[in-house]
Amino acid sequence: MDNSEIIVEEKKETAVAEAEKKAVATADHVNLQTDYSMGIFGTSDNFKMAWQMAQALSQSTVVPAAFQKNPSNCLIAIEQATRLNMSPFMVMQNLYIIQGKPSWSSKFLIAMINGSGRFDTELQYDEAADANGAPYSCLAWAMKNGRRIEGMKITMDMAKKEGWLSKNGSKWNTLPALMLRYRAASFFASLNCPELTLGIYTKEEFEDGTIIDGTADVREAVKEDIAQNANATIFDVIDEG
Questions:
Q1: How many other CB atoms sit within 10 Å of the CB of residue 163?
Q2: Is residue 180 part of a domain?
Q3: What is the chain's Cα-based Rg?
Q4: For a disulfide at 172, which of 26, 43, 165, 206, Cβ 3.0-4.6 Å?
Q5: Does the residue 162 lie in any domain?
Q6: Which phi and psi (to 5°) does residue 4 adopt?
Q7: Residue 99, phi-psi category: left (phi > 0), alpha (psi -120 to 50), beta (remainder)
């Protein structure tokens, strides 16, 4: 056997070896046994499949910027989606990253509560106006098994004392009725279904700058994150621990 024949034979052996590797990889992929009732970290196969999904999603230009080319962030979104029994894409479109922490928009939080099936009715709101007819207070509630489940009443006096109105560009000054509803809903969730929110705050709470262990105002950081992730739909949620 001359050198040319040896080279040809070596190339064949290399091609066969590569084909075998691909076949094994394909077989491993096909034979993954997943059970997401245990979560994506419940078994090694669960994690492998979730990681493959995260890598694929991270290559999309449709997902928000915080997830593009970042499979690790996508993996966290998939984990959240599994817990909430939602589409990972929906979660990524509504999960907003502020200072490295996830948050939901208030409207998405309300949608989660209403769609959770934990209550017999959607969120209802008891609203009141002040002597001048301006929005003054809001209490979110829902019915469950014939009982009225309430959150905490939010008032404009509370908003003033907490400093929510004093932030530059605060929506409390321009859209008080909406902000009262948003805050009443987030308080309702924190009190009555924290397992649904997973301990995550809302974007609006971040903007108020009142939930990061008493540290300085984070409004500028929020603005910067919004600018960097402009194609994301926002929902607030942060670890209370």
A1: 14
A2: yes
A3: 25
A4: 165
A5: yes
A6: -65, -40
A7: left
Q: What is the pLDDT of residues 26-50, one digit of tens each?
A: 444 556 666 666 677 778 888 898 9
Structural domain total, the chain:
1
- 3-class state of residue 95 by DSSP: strand
Boundaries of domain holding 207: 106-228
Report the alpha-carbon distance of residue 152 to residue 188 in Å, rounded: 7
How far is C-alpha 40 from the chain's CA centre?
Answer: 16
Instruction: Report the greatest alpha carbon distance in the chain.
Output: 103
Number of H helices, E strands in the chain: 11, 6
Enumerate the β-bridge partners of residue 142. 149
Residue 127 CB-density burial (10 A; 0-12 exposed, 13-18 middle, 19+ buried): middle
Per-residue pLDDT tens digits for 126-139: 999 999 999 999 99
The sign of the CA dihedral 157, 158, 162, 163 is negative
pTM (2 decimals)?
Answer: 0.65
Q: Which residues contact 60 (CB under 8 A, 6 or more apart)?
A: 68
